[in-house]
Amino acid sequence: MPLGRRRPLLRGALVGGTAYAAGRRAAAAQQHEADQQAAIDQLQAQQATAAPAAPAAAPQPSAGSGLLDELTRLGELRDQGVLTEAEFAAAKSRLLGM
C-alpha cells in the first residue's frame, strides 16, 4: 500500500476521535447538570412538604408580673412576627379573662 493513502485515514481517525471525546464531555456535562437539577428539585420538594414550625405558645402570666407587662410583651412578640394577629388576640383574651 502506498504511504499517501494512509494519511487521510489517520487524519480522519484523529478528527473523529476528538469529536467523539468532545461529545462524551458534553454528554457528561449535561448529565451532571441534570443530576444537580434533580437534587435541587428534591430539596425544594422536601422544604415544601416540611411541616411549618409550631407557633410559639402564648406566655402565661407569672404570679409577680402585672397584666400590663404581659400585654406589652405579647404586643412585642406580635410586632416581631413571632405571633400572628389571631394568636395575639387569643392570648390577650386569655389574659383579660374574656
Write the layout of secondary structure elements.
Layout: H1 3-49, H2 67-80, H3 85-96
Please summarize the sheet with the most strands.
Answer: none
What class would the helix/strand composition place it in? mainly alpha
Task: List the uncertain runs.
Answer: none
| Distinct helical segment count | 3
- Determine the mean pLDDT: 76
Q: In total, how many domains does the architecture comprise?
A: 2
Question: Oligomeric state of the chains?
Answer: single chain
Question: Which overall shape is indicated by the principal axes computed on the Cα atoms?
Answer: rod-shaped
**Amino- and carboxy-terminal Cα gap:** 107 Å
User: How many whole angstroms does the radius of gyration measure?
Assistant: 35 Å
Q: In percent, how much strand structure appears in the residues? A: under 5%
How many strands? Answer: 0
Biased composition (Low complexity): 26-63
Region (Disordered): 26-67
Domain SHOCT: 69-96
Protein name: SHOCT domain-containing protein
Describe the overall structure.
The protein has 98 residues and is an all-alpha fold. It folds into two domains: 1-50; 53-98, no CATH class. The chain has three helices and no strands. It has helices spanning 3-49, 67-80, 85-96. α2 (67-80) packs antiparallel against α3 (85-96). The protein is rod-shaped, with a radius of gyration of 35 Å.
